[in-house]
Write the structure tokens for this entry.
Amino acid sequence: MTFKLSDELLEQIEQLVADRNNSGLLQILNELHYADIAEIINELNLDEATYLIKLLDSEKTSETLTELDEDVRERILKNLSAQEIADELLELDTDDAADIIAELSEERKKEVISHIEDKEHAKDIVELLRYDENSAGGLMAKELVKVNENWNVLTCVKEMRLQAEHVTRVHSIYVVDDNERLKGRLSLKDLLTTSTQTHIRDIYIPKVDYVSVTDKAEDVARVMSKYDLEAIPVVDESGRLVGRITIDDIVDVIREEAEKDYQLAAGITRDVEADDSVWKLTRARLPWLLIGMFGGLGAASIITGFQDALETYPILLSFVPLMQATAGNVGVQSSAIVVQGLANNSIKGEILGRLAKEFSLGLINGLAIAAIVLLISHFAFGTSYLVSSTIGLGLITVIVNAAVIGTFIPIFLDKRGIDPAVATGPFITTSNDVLGILIYFTIAKVILGF
Amino acid sequence: MTFKLSDELLEQIEQLVADRNNSGLLQILNELHYADIAEIINELNLDEATYLIKLLDSEKTSETLTELDEDVRERILKNLSAQEIADELLELDTDDAADIIAELSEERKKEVISHIEDKEHAKDIVELLRYDENSAGGLMAKELVKVNENWNVLTCVKEMRLQAEHVTRVHSIYVVDDNERLKGRLSLKDLLTTSTQTHIRDIYIPKVDYVSVTDKAEDVARVMSKYDLEAIPVVDESGRLVGRITIDDIVDVIREEAEKDYQLAAGITRDVEADDSVWKLTRARLPWLLIGMFGGLGAASIITGFQDALETYPILLSFVPLMQATAGNVGVQSSAIVVQGLANNSIKGEILGRLAKEFSLGLINGLAIAAIVLLISHFAFGTSYLVSSTIGLGLITVIVNAAVIGTFIPIFLDKRGIDPAVATGPFITTSNDVLGILIYFTIAKVILGF
């Protein structure tokens, strides 16, 4: 049943647009979900895309806009008048409307807002624009169902019916006091089985999960997925109910968070996708490559510094790539486990305990690898006992060191309030590369005495 | 409002368990969500944990069991009789019950199932155990609300009331024919505003998203998050409605999928956490380190092969770490973007087009880095023009090669039905390391003619 965008469908639609065959287009598009229409429009050129957007009825257009790739949406919005954009926003929930409007220039923003007919809706959108997009305030919508604790059941049901018109999925009925402060929630069953004159304050459930408007998006995601919540109310500094976050927005947060960590670990600094332009991809990738380059040049100057000594033991140089690769790999493994543990809140206890654990882990891995390398280097490369000991001891030290550093740096950054994910990937690889080579040659110097 | 497990709380609970102070314990635990109780129990020793589990009322126990760490749960279940486990399963939805029972030995499984009182529930659980845990069948629950298209509204409402007792959150009412085949869904509003004698077949909505029981979990996640669904029905090969998947299970799938890709990219082969034992962590990490080790030994033999020639140009060796680090970094970047694009379904079009794009990207990055390195190597290391050209040309070739390989391998694996995520991390780093060094020396041989 899954929609799959085929080249045939795309060609058919392009042809229909070229023929200005509106009924043919609508026949196809009306059968499709707006997320599928967005997928089609992402692949069209700007004129075709704008044509389709203007052809669709307003509700479908607005939902489609929310699903488009950001750069495609940006170009289409430039092709629409402030009035046209304002009309689309009217169809959207406040959170989606705020997300779209946030992408416009300051001037255009004001213009569009002034064209929104429903002043209440406009006010809500302006309020949402105030919040950081990575906070609970940036995720929440103003649409929700709330009742006053002092109402009776009859008033409550009447008011709820009015409010529910603006809310796609109700999920929960929240109870507030006269100052709009969140007091609890109401079970639909209790509401329906109680006499109409009963006061809400006598039947509501005072226990309700909530988040604060300034909470970070990833913390909201953690709470909602831990407690399997489909919606959570948001309160401001004085405990007033100001909005509601639904699980579909959290799914996006979880996905983006995971993708960001993964990209950082792979040495990609910006949020890019495979489809982005070569230039955008270069800007995301070059910075980490430059860090790696300076690491490589650092390693070059270390090796050059030992040049004279190395003339006596040229075989030592053959094992530099081994030291470097091992140090990099161990560092990435250790840091990835710590970064993931920090993201999951599963790292507890003392930092010393963790370092001791990584130390023993490094020692076990180091001994295993050193033993194999010793055998191979001795028999395949015919290294002397002293050189073999240098390589073996070098490997063990380099591995233990990389494991400890890979653990320490993310924990340190996290304590300083810096996203520990930046410490994975090229950063940890590069520093371990250079340090690994330095350790190796220092050990060689001590053992071989040059 | 978020619960935070403190050392004080833990000590207090341990003391209360030691004192066998049940009322004190229940006073604390009754205030907590089962996910929080699970967090506490994860930190206790087996005797304390079993004591708490037996103390809680059955509903809270069963929900707590679903939230425990797998290894903690395994040990606690060993401490419970088959009858005790069966009683807990009765309280759970079929999907959660099946997940727990799946962890038992074959013999114990049978014993527990035979002790489940509700035979219908037991039958449903046995059915769910048949499916692969990473498929729609492995995710779904049997609990759902379904009505027959031939019923009238009155029968329908009566039947729904009975069914809804077993369903925590209704989400959707599904419509089936006499053969249990999924026909569509019913809007609650239509149901309530139609006369009681109307037949369901005249009012249901035939358009409904669904997945097949054999669909992969990650595909279900993609569909549900693309279409913002909170629940999706599952059908078998003949289109019969057999279960339902809710969004909370999908949130876990998305998180686990992202963590798995991230761990693979970091060179960790099994699903491990920071808290796991040193031995378990070693088994997850050593395999990739061994691959890296063989790569390093391969590089060593390449360098040794060029040893004579290198006596004339020892400076070439100083730049080996630079070649290696750059090749590894570029390869990881390219493969990460492709792997993520494949996971998101955002990679379309020809493989040749992608390779051409990576080729030009590699060329741009390569030229930029080569230019900087040329300047630095000439002035800081005093390399001759020929050696400088070797280094510069080597860097460009190595970068382009790594970019192309990093793109090609994941796409190739994906076409073969192998998870492309295995191609990221140490695998791509190691192959690019070795290849990079080989390319570098080959270019040196051509230019410098040794």
